[in-house]
Amino acid sequence: MATPPFITSLHRPFNQPLKVTRLVCDFINEQKKPLASSVINIEFYFHLLDELSNLYAKNAIKDFTGLPSKEAIVEVIKAFELLKKPERIEFIKDAVRKKNKSALEKQIYSTYKSASYYVNFTKDKLGLVDKNNTLTEDGKTLLAIESSFTNYKQEEKDFYYKKLLEVDFLLLITLCLFKRLSYEYKFSDYIENQFDFLDDFYGIRHFNFTKSSLENYNTVRNFWLSTLDLLDKRMIIRKNYQDVIHSNESYSQWYKDLIGKFNLYVGDKFKKEQLYNSQRSVLEERYCDCIKEGKGELGFVNLYDLKEGFRMSFETFQSFVNKYYENEKRKKHIFFSNIVSSIDRRKRFDIRGIPVLKMKIK
Question: What are phi and psi for residue 270, nearest 5 degrees?
């Protein structure tokens, strides 16, 4: 089965508020003729300044997530008041080009950058504006929904949810599954697990996913989940949203395939990792206890003393210590020794192909 669609990059915070797409669609709808792509960003920027100025005038809130601050909007508008439009455009271009920017130029650059991201989000990511810079049918549908900027009607939530399934099904639903997994197993940092899953089952590395970038993208998608009230208290997709998936043949097939792969990951890899993480904690706690009890010599603790913390056979414990070394050697200094102060005839552990009896973790 083909990989479900997903958005390859997102900007935090400018891609967080879904409502900005209404601002762009309203702007496009007001044009008497389609704008050239070379001017759409700067023309929308002037429109955005007016819209946000009105928004802040009507609301006591000084800042909205993902929108330029009230202070920035006021300062930029004030700077533009005495300038004619061509002068404003040159001012903006200079602020964008300059490396060493004044405080005002930084505000102009930041607010203009937000406008360009809003256009890109609306046009290229959600497809509400076409390549000719006219509204698509979906863009018209969005504008037909009566709404205020500060509230989302359920009809509006349903619209955005369906659009996100259309363009970002894989990563949006995958995030939901890992949030549920973290709730069920009571852990918070699921980024590495999510990364491994996407790599193992979908080979997704081509847009340079790193833990930090995936975390940023998740911040945006988590904001969408909250906006749409997509998950219940147990981190399960709400029934009305599940019904949307199951009522669409493509979405239903994608979901079935995704759930199958997710269950394989949980059963085959995740639970083994959970067991390993638990055993790692036991080993390190046991090591610290042995040091406190005076069972260590220059930091080296007998592996038989460490083994007392486990209900494992000799072979199983030996295998675990080998795995521990391979997994942790980049994070910790781990040493082994076969030197003992008195005769110890017990069987040595084979670690990395070498017979050893003692271990030091630093």
Answer: -60, -50
pLDDT in tens, 58-102: 887 778 899 999 999 999 999 999 899 999 999 999 999 999 999
Long-range contact pairs involving 339-342 (C-beta distance under 8 Å, separation at least 24): 341/297
Q: What one-letter code names the amino acid at 32?
A: K
- What percentage of the chain has pLDDT greater than the value 70? 98
DSSP secondary structure, 36-78, as one string: PHHHHHHHHHHHHHHHHHHHHHH-S-S--TTS--HHHHHHHHH
In this predicted model, what pLDDT tens digit does every residue of 291-344 receive, in sequence order?
999 998 899 999 999 999 899 999 999 999 999 999 999 889 999 999 876 788
Give the C-alpha separation, 198 to 173, whole Å: 12
pTM for the full predicted model: 0.83
Could you tell me if 123 and 129 are in contact, meaning their C-beta atoms sit under 8 angstroms apart? Answer: yes
CB 196 within 8 A of CB 268: no
Residues facing 300 on adjacent strands: 297
* Alpha-carbon gap, residue 307 to 86, rounded angstroms: 77
The SS3 call for residue 237 is: strand
Strand 354-356 to 358-361 pairing: unpaired
